[in-house]
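Protein entry
_____________
===
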Amino acid sequence: MESTFLNLEKLCKSRSSCRRFKPGNIPESAIEKIITIAKLSPYAGGRKNWDILAITDKTLKQSMANAIEEKIESATRDMDKAEAAMFRDYGKNFLFFTQAPVLLVPYFRISPVMQALLRQNVTNELLQWERDNSVKSISCVSMLVLLAAESLGLGACYMTGPLIAKEEIGKILALPPGKEPGAIIPVGYPDK
């Protein structure tokens, strides 16, 4: 058992967020392995109301980046000049994913029980609680993605900043109604 712990500790210590990727494809088998590990994640309420998309299409990635840039511009319209400049600069960190060969996008849906309650005008507090459970659960899924990528010699980064445009990203990725992205995780061979 001690050796299993030491292997996990070594993997966790070696993992870091990768924001620069070498060009070139990742073997499909590596992406399948990462997703297989991610699907072992615990999830709130024991429900599997999530999945992961693997995006390699450059046009889709650029459309996502364009939607994020538009959302950043929209958010800065009512800010004073200095604040707007700071936010635009900060927002540049939301876009490096376009250079990664693969994006893994875990997405979730609010449970059918909550959807039924919503139709009965349930309080925002209860809705927020349910959504928070889904977001926390996607974080567990994402951590397994990051560790699985590291175990295969791949770099990855957990990104939530791009979700400033979550509705637009959901439409670009053709997510079914009621589902939303929980993160964007660029994956590739690290370019150090």
Remarks:
- The CA atoms of residues 38 and 144 lie 5 Å apart.
- The chain has seven helices and five strands.
